[in-house]
Design a protein that fits this description.
Number of domains: 1
Oligomer: single chain
Number of helices: 5
Largest sheet: 2 strands, antiparallel
Number of strands: 4
Radius of gyration: 14 Å
Strand order of the largest sheet: 1-2
Strand content: 5-15%
């Protein structure tokens, strides 16, 4: 069973944030790796987002990425977290410290 590079990256990003979506502090569901289909279904619920969008600075490094829900990524669009979330202190604390 070959796992795609994208799915591997999503799992690594989720693990690096302790399975928490840093933008809304929601839990990220852990995948059930019983089949490729299950992993693809899990992967389709989440997207890799650039924390600082490429329109400001092209940084494709791991440290500029988070795993977030499809809905959160659409809502954030091509904005920085600060432009999107404003001064929500708890969320900023989690993004910076965690």
């Amino acid at each position: 069973m070959a796992i795609s590079k994208t799915i591997k990256s999503k799992i690594l990003l989720a693990k690096s944030n302790n399975w928490i979506d840093p933008y809304k502090l929601q839990p990220i569901e852990k995948p059930i790796p019983t089949s490729i289909e299950n992993l693809k279904a899990w992967s389709s619920m989440y997207e890799i987002d650039h924390i600082i969008p490429n329109k400001y600075f092209h940084d494709d490094s791991f440290s500029n990425k988070v795993l977030t829900s499809f809905a959160n990524n659409r809502e954030k669009a091509k904005r920085t977290p600060f432009e999107w979330l404003g001064s929500q202190v708890l969320v900023w604390y989690y993004i910076v410290v965690a």
